[in-house]
Amino acid sequence: MTVRLWDGAAAPQPHPPTEWVMLDWGTSALRGALLNAQGQVLQERSFAQGILSVPTGGFATVFAERFGDWMAEPHRRCLISGMAGSRQGWQEAPYCPCPAGFTELGQHLLWLEPGRIALVPGLSCMAADALQTPDVMRGEEVQIFGALQLAQRHSATLVLPGTHSKWVQVAQGRVTDFKTYMTGEVYGLLSQHSILAKTLVPNAAFDSAVFLQGIAHSQQAGSVLHQLFAVRTLALFERVPAEALASYLSGLLIGEELRSQAIANTAGPVILIGSDALTLRYTLALQHLRIDSQSWGAEATWAGLFALATASFDAPPKDLA
Amino acid sequence: MTVRLWDGAAAPQPHPPTEWVMLDWGTSALRGALLNAQGQVLQERSFAQGILSVPTGGFATVFAERFGDWMAEPHRRCLISGMAGSRQGWQEAPYCPCPAGFTELGQHLLWLEPGRIALVPGLSCMAADALQTPDVMRGEEVQIFGALQLAQRHSATLVLPGTHSKWVQVAQGRVTDFKTYMTGEVYGLLSQHSILAKTLVPNAAFDSAVFLQGIAHSQQAGSVLHQLFAVRTLALFERVPAEALASYLSGLLIGEELRSQAIANTAGPVILIGSDALTLRYTLALQHLRIDSQSWGAEATWAGLFALATASFDAPPKDLA
Questions:
Q1: Within B241-298, where are the H helices?
Q2: CB contact under 8 A, A260 and B226
Q3: Looking at the domain that runs over B181-296, which CATH code has it been given?
């Protein structure tokens, strides 16, 4: 932008404040936001163009097609989180091992264009079992730090429900441990492809009372592999209306996550990050177990990317140091 | 059969001993055996003609086509177990509630042709939870009583692994309780349709050592919904060879069944009934947990049907009493 004085002479050009093109590029979706220098969202875009739909070597092209107009301004810089940084993505940004906080993430950015475009690495942690079983996330880490900032918390238990739900422990600003549950994917498989599919009514309304019956049932001793079969037999014996069985199944599976977690209410409310439909279910389930929670949505993603970008982009890029 | 004396005069015709046409008519398969009066299997037949492939009202026709020749002899009688007795089958033989033994099953036969052809009812039991959640079996009950007879046991824990595994408690000859686990179906869904499918190598050999690592891992605190994700991350970090991951997954799921069961070795060996491939896995898993077992195959089905038929057919049919 050139500022002209009234006499027509060109004034010295001020350094325009940095604006940000933030991308959350996942497996099945590509979402972007344009943020001003204060972190306010000016525009948002989303495309059904996750990394699975991008041909090898095609990431720069898709990026230019979808966000080239935003990036045309020289004072804009870009930070990308999610599966775009995986082995199957644009370039592999190796996992940053836990415990990891904001500083470690910033130090491990992978620069696609030094100082201007970078990929956020995912996080990994190792279980203390014989195989040192790893766990991984990509994309959730920026949501976590974004939500913590919005909630002004340094320590918390966080849940990011979805296809692969994440339960995350944060202490003093660093992710110390997390666990992935295949809850959403198992729910999808059972309700679409299993014997239970015949029993469930498609597009039935969410039934909160029956959902909580599923939550209660899942807290009993036993195995979820057994409890699931109840979705069939409760229908067979007409104990639960067919329209409510999907809610019961959802309660059993979300309840199985809760059963295996030790959550102390004294540590402050659990932070939920996800869509309204999912965080509602977790809010209900946690409340049933007398555990308080707070929910955040997409704003956590943009807040996390903004905080990470503003803290890291003007530090010397690690690759160039 | 007419016996003629040397002088050509017809002797009084003796009552020929009853022979048995035994059918195990399940969801996806129809198996039959011809047994002599002593219960020995003379012939076996099987068809990919489970009840799902039989049109409404078509059961008598399929029966006549497949077993009409065997039934042509008037001294042959027939007993049918499995899903043919379900609501979607030939006729519904209502579930016999547990505790139930041999006597109760025999009293609840559903006669298709009084005194000559009957359907075996399934069993049901109710959990002591708020919904009194039912559980059901059809077909397994004859395998259970057959195996108990072959093993000369009156009390045992039995496992019938498969698409829907059954864990069964028998005390003094009566089934007191049982639980269905959707283990086989979940294994199939995960290995064919989930994100894990990309990680698994099709038709890989069974790896017993890695299978037992899965069993050991599943005995730890936590949730199978989380443990399953290790099948992906162990591959990602190359901790387990890709060819062995299907065995690991199998170990996790079968181990989850075992984790939720309290089995005392003092109660005698666990009785396994199923295919060799499956009972081998359970034998290994149980041995790993220092629990002895014995295995039975199809012979348990025919022994159970034979014992039930010989004990029940000459008692007055309940429907006619």
A1: 245-259, 276-288
A2: yes
A3: 3.30.420.310
